[in-house]
Every structure is written in C-alpha cells, then in structure tokens.
Please model this.
Amino acid sequence: MKLRVGYPTKTEERQILDRMGDATENSASAMVRPVLTPAQIDALQKLVRELYADERIKGYLVELVAATRDPRAYGLPDLADFVQYGASPRATLALLSTARAHAFLQGRGYVMPEDVKEVAPDVLRHRVLLSYEAEAENVSSDQVVSRILERIEVP
Model:
C-alpha cells in the first residue's frame, strides 16, 4: 500500500540522527520489544478476516474498482482520458481486507460504507495508472479516486 508520509520536523530529524546515526548506539537504543506474540497476531488476523461484509458492500467494492477501469460507463466521461489503466481484481480484495481492518479498529464486527471510503484512497491511489493527459493537466490519482467515490452510489 502506498502511503503519503510527510517529513519530520527539524527537531524530530535531529532525534533520528542522534538515535540512528551511530552504528554503535543504534544497536543499543533501538531495541525492539514485542507487544504481541505471533499467535496473538495470527488470532487477530483471523478475527479481522471473519468480520461481516454484507453482499451490498461487496457489490460496492466491485463497482468502485470497475469504475477505475471504465469511468465513462459510470457517468464520469471527464475522467476517461486521464485513466490509462484501472485497478486490478487485487484492488477489490485489498479494499475488502482493509475495510474489515478499519471496521475492527473502530470496534465493530461489520463493515460499513464509511470504512470503504476511508481506506479507498490508500488502496487505489497507486493502482490507478494515469495517462499523459492527466499528468499534463496536473490531475492526481487521488483526485480520480475521490471523484469515483463521489459518483458511485453507496449501498
């Protein structure tokens, strides 16, 4: 998943330099302490995979991804020249798993459309490959995904 991460402040960058810049200090100061056992992680992953996603949510996921492939068919003719390649079926799978994880983190045992909308930009931004026309007009994949999220009817 492609995430957008900002730069650290100068103070934070200095802390990084002080902590990690010296190989001898690095091994002593950057100790990794487990917070979960591998068995606990496996159990949580299994629990997240079992979160309920209604058939309408699954249909919504399919429609979102299909709209990246053929924006014109979804009433977005203005995006058609900007998308060179839409998202693959792996995007649909990633949307479902990340929406489930988001729902879990929100303390729910089921996926809501809001979960999908929250994770869709992170899941789709690098899976929608833009055309030269998009680059020439300064259209980003985030803008394309945002328009698709606005257009596709929420169940």
